[in-house]
Design brief:
This protein has 4 helices and 9 strands, in the order H-E-E-H-E-E-H-E-H-E-E-E-E. Helices cover 29% and strands 41% of the residues. Strand 3 and strand 4 form a beta hairpin.
Length: 239
């Protein structure tokens, strides 16, 4: 009786105590030929925002003096940005640094001769046409390091959708070409996968230059045009 009871107890154990198992359900393949096509669609836009890094580099005999001089110059730069109408949300600190400067001589240990302090802010210009004049004002207030610009589109959603539509059209046209070459026809699209996008960032080298104007120079930023692209993989059924 004990043996029978033990067997019954084992049989009554919940199924969850059994080792986990996986069941593979075979997928039904479509009646036809599968064709995968990768295509990139694009549209063009004129960039409407520019991000430029403006900084102050100062040197002094002591670390405190280098930082102090740098802070004063950067305060003037930030005040100039505010006077120009640049909102606080469009200005953020990109880098702050302090490093010793050395003098090197043969067979001698390096000697610290002073310190260099750097402070760089990233500035987003929502009116690209005015950015050059603002940069000139920053230089007058002490900015001595400028990098950029990175041109972009502020709201790229509509442009990206246009590029997606173009990508699917290109994929369909290519599928039709392959189908004709193989003596088949495109029956339908099975799936669409988006592989990546470029929302209009600067793929080409930025254009920041100075143009002589009589006795002075005026910095110009040329927006040009940028490509907005989307890559897709489309799976077709051919019959």
């Amino acid at each position: 009786m004990k043996l029978i009871a033990s067997a019954l107890a084992l049989a009554a154990l919940p199924l969850a105590s059994a080792p986990a198992s996986a069941q593979v359900v075979p997928q039904m393949l479509p009646d036809g030929t599968i064709l995968d096509v990768t295509a990139t669609g694009q549209t063009t836009r004129v960039p409407d925002i520019a991000t430029i890094r403006a900084g102050v580099v100062t040197q002094a005999a002591t670390a405190g003096a280098a930082l102090g001089d740098n802070a004063q110059a950067m305060a003037r730069v930030l005040a100039a940005l505010k006077r120009a109408g640049i909102e606080a949300r469009d200005v953020n600190t990109a880098n702050v640094g302090l490093s010793p400067q050395y003098r090197y001589a043969e067979n001698q240990a390096p000697v610290i001769t002073g310190y260099q302090a750097t402070n760089t802010v990233s500035v987003r210009f929502r009116d690209i046409a005015k950015s050059g004049a603002i940069l000139d004002a920053l230089v007058k207030e002490g900015a001595n390091q400028i990098d950029g610009p990175n041109l972009a589109i502020d709201k790229p959603d509509t442009a990206l959708d246009e590029a997606r539509t173009d990508a699917v059209k290109r994929a369909r046209a290519r599928a039709e070409l392959y189908a004709r070459a193989a003596g088949l026809t495109v029956s339908r699209i099975i799936s669409i996968t988006e592989n990546g996008e470029n929302a209009g960032g600067s793929p080409q080298p930025p254009m920041l230059y100075a143009r002589a104007k009589e006795a002075d120079a005026s910095t110009q930023v040329a927006a040009g045009e940028t490509n907005v692209t989307v890559a897709v993989n489309v799976r077709f059924l051919l019959k």
